Structure formats: C-alpha cells, structure tokens
C-alpha cells in the first residue's frame, strides 16, 4: 500500500516549508515509490505567509502506523505567542504517534509538535532564529542547535525552509532506500543530499555578513575554486590591490585570512564527503589537499566551522 503523507497546514505557513518536502514525496511517487499526498487544515483555505491562498481538506484520511504527518512552518512564533492549532488537531498528532506513526516538522512546525506534547523528553531542532524561543517554551525537550534535522522516537524535526527537502530525502532513503532518495534528489536538481548533523549555515554563508565589496569579490573566487592552489598574489591581481591590502581588508571583514577561509571551505566539504562514506584520503584529494595529512591535522585540531574567529 502507498504511504500516506499528510501535510497539516496552519495559517501563515511558509510556501517552501510545504513545497520542498511535498515536491520530494511527489517526485518519489512519480518514480514508482508509492506515496499518496494529502493536505489538511482547520479551514477550507489557508493563506500563506507569502500571501498565496492554499486549498485544503478538513477531513483527515484514515492513517496507519506506516503513514506520516508533516507540519510545515508558519510565520515565526515570535510573532504568534499562541500556537494556531486546535485541541482536536493536537490530539490527532499525539494519537498518530502513539499508534506507531511518524510525525515530522519543518522550521516552526516544531512549535505545533511541542504544543501537542511530542517534544517532551525528546531531542529536536528548528530554525536557528527560533531556538531560544522554542527552548524556553518546551524545556522538557532537548533542543539540538545548528543541525539540519533530528530523529528521535519517530518524531523528526528539521531546521527550516530548504532543510525540509533534506528531511524528506532522509525519510525516503529510510523507507525506500538510498538509491530511491538519490534518484529523487537528481530529479529535483538538488546539489547534495545532506546528513542531519550538518550545520544549518555553510561557511560560504556564515562569513558573508559584511559590507566589503572587495572581500566579497575575493570570496567569490575562493568559493568557486576552493579546491585549487590559490596564491595570494593571484587573488590580489584579480581584484586590483596589493597583497597587503587584500589581507588587511579581507581579515577585517571576515575575521579570517584568505588561506584560513579556503581551509574552512575545504574542511567543510571534506566532512560532507566523509559523512557520505568517502575515505579520508579520497575526501582530501577531492577538496584539493595533496595528501590526507593536512586534512587529518585540521580535523584533529577541531578547526572551527562556526562563527569567524577574529584575528585568525
């Protein structure tokens, strides 16, 4: 029997929180993997945060333990002190889980699971902007920060927005196999299927919160050629400044030297490859190291993949 995937639509839901995983399961169904999609709400029509109305059904399909409920996120709970979910809907979530079914959320959808009591005693995650809010609301749960998704006792929570696609691909891989998930990812032109413990923000995004045009242009080059042997003189010529000026401006803007920024990009990509089964030697070659010694050294040092280190 096809697996039923029921999307619970709440007012002001985010389109991509819904469309990303819906597309993944729909594509899996098109490829013959047996998923039936349903969209339920407490009203016949739900207006999204982006202003587009979405039609829904009020009647829930009959669910079995093999089926899945997904709660997409809605406009930040910081602006909605009360979770927009009725007592009967909370009970449906609890009952499905108690019967052995899976319940998942994207972004602030975790707030609905928390309101239903499903986060108590379990690990969960959410969008990085909402972690403080939800950890305060649901202190009986164990909030895991800066990961893409968390699975705990058939309660699956994801970070938000595009991570809903990673969540769906993970569930497809578990239910239908890694090959099925890879085919879906290829059809959706997803660059890479990410593991749940990967950071919510890549290094390419974390170190872009500055206003230096020069540093951004240098980062553009390093981002596209991080596996190459880039010389400081070459980077400086490319942006029309001296090596000294480039280093000074880049470090002031990002908190990193150009070399350290390149190393962080390489290390982050290598960790991704190792997490998907590559050997350290193969990962080192793929990201541009001459051998695995430097990669091992960086990993053993615990090189920070988080916020920039000033003066690095």
TrEMBL record:
This is AraC family transcriptional regulator with amidase-like domain. PANTHER family: ARAC-FAMILY TRANSCRIPTIONAL REGULATOR (PTHR43130), HTH-TYPE TRANSCRIPTIONAL REGULATOR RV1931C (PTHR43130:SF3). It comes from the Bacteria. Keywords: Signal, Transcription, Transcription regulation. GO terms for molecular function: DNA-binding transcription factor activity; sequence-specific DNA binding. Residues 1-24 form the signal peptide. Residues 216-312 form the HTH araC/xylS-type domain. Transmembrane segments: none annotated. It holds the Pfam family DJ-1_PfpI. InterPro entries: Class_I_gatase-like, DJ-1/PfpI, Homeodomain-like_sf, HTH_AraC, INH-QAR.
